[in-house]
Structure formats: C-alpha cells, structure tokens
Write a structure and sequence with these properties.
4 helices, 56% helix, mainly alpha
Length: 78
C-alpha cells in the first residue's frame, strides 16, 4: 500500500491515518487532544507533521511497522 492511498476518512490518505493511529497509541499527550478540545490543535499538528514525514515509501513503511509492533511497555518503579 502506498502512503498516498485514499481512505474512507474524507481528506485523509493512508499516511494521515497511520500517523493518527501511531500517535494515539504511543504519545499520551497527543492522544489527549483527541478527547480534550483545548489540546486538539496540538494533536492535529503532530499528526500532520508525522504524516508529512511519512510521505515516502520507506518512512511510511517504518511508521506502519512501528505501529504494528504495538505500544512500548512502560516500567513503573515499585
């Protein structure tokens, strides 16, 4: 699949969707922008920036692979 393929989300290409999903799972501060209106501009900007950085095939493939590997496990002090 190409980074510029269309999605069912109007105006989004696959790179936009991949960036959105990756950030939702890996960046808590950005994910908050999806539910907290005051933070939505930060979330939108981060998504656009990552999508633009993933516009070539190699970078898009890396992004998809990072998302596919799942969120990093966090270790909390005991």
């Amino acid at each position: 699949m190409l980074a510029s393929s269309a999605t069912l989300c109007e105006g989004w290409q696959t790179r936009d969707l991949a960036a959105h999903l990756y950030l939702r799972e890996h960046r808590a501060a950005v994910a908050l922008g999806l539910i907290a209106k005051p933070l939505s501009k930060v979330s939108d900007k981060a998504t656009r920036k990552l999508a633009e950085a993933s516009s070539n095939r190699a970078e898009y493939t890396k992004l998809v692979e990072k998302f596919h590997s799942g969120p990093a496990l966090r270790r909390f002090p005991q």
